[in-house]
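Comment thread on ticket #2218

A.B. wrote:
> Attaching the input chain for the structure job we discussed in standup.
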Amino acid sequence: MLEVALHHDFPGFTLDARFEAPPGLTVLFGRSGSGKTTIVNAVAGLLMPDRGRIAAGDWTLLDTAAGLRLKPHRRRLGYIFQEGRLFPHLTVRQNLRYGAWFAPKDAPREEMGRVVEMLGIGALLDRRPGALSGGEKQRVAIGRALLSAPKIILADEPLAALDEARKAEILPYFERLRDEVNVPILFVSHSASEVARLATTVVALEDGRVIRQGPAAEVLGDPAVLPTGARAAGAVVTAQVVAHHADGLTELSAGGVPVFLPRVAQGPGAVLRLRIAAHDVILSRARPEGLSALNIFPGTVAEIREGEGPGAMVALDTPAGRVLARITHRSRAALGLAPGVAVHAIVKSVSSAPSDIGGGGPGA
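C.D. wrote:
> Ran it. Output below, let me know if you need it in another format.
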């Protein structure tokens, strides 16, 4: 369990955040200026807060009440930056060994062969960073962090500097990191797709304070939690691959509801996370017929959050889980929507981008 409690006063801004995160990947999620990187800097020891406590299990990094403030180099952290920050004069193999060189001799270590296999960097070992793509550099940076035998891994928007193709390349490796490495991971992001795919736990931040924390499906499915704005709202459902069809679609089952997506790589039986963007959802009081959209989720209105503009966020409880729909006040009134009303959520198969579909993992 990762425990973080911090208070620090800056001119014009106060960080006052407290959260506990179970094993897995915890995402600090919010707008720029909400305090995400400030928290990571405090965990790394680059910021000494006025008051606070940071601990991972029995490893205490900071306890101001007890006068304990470990220096950064003694905190046993693996840090993954936006850019790989590899040593340009060393090969990939030598960069990885540099991480292992810092591991305490008595610390449980990851085997280099397992890390290389997990990250798919075996063919890169004799190259220098200048010959690597951005995604390859990030995979090597992850490996270097793992081989330092860290107590905590920090990742400060590690995908922000990558284009969409490189992000798609590296996201599965962060999923493996989440699922296969027994080290708490604190991951900073303002991308709803990244949060939906990767998070075991979401800590939503606004103006230096935690406004909600919990499993990704619960936090992202709360219409009151919109830390990066209504346009980024979207819920997460877990689905199992049923079959691949000859017309290029993959059929999944989400709580017994059939879901069709453009073909995915995973085979039948695989469990996936699917982010459904709220602005891609259409609502109907009756089950629709004669539509091109294939995905229809029957449900009940759980909550409606009225926006200040023309929009409203409607939360539905469905057999597949919580689904959000962003509609206008006029549509809400025309449909007579209120908590407890039966409704159908309609989603086009092609509206799901590849970045919105990922491995299920824990906490899905």
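A.B. wrote:
> Thanks. Noting for the ticket: The chain has eight helices and 21 strands.
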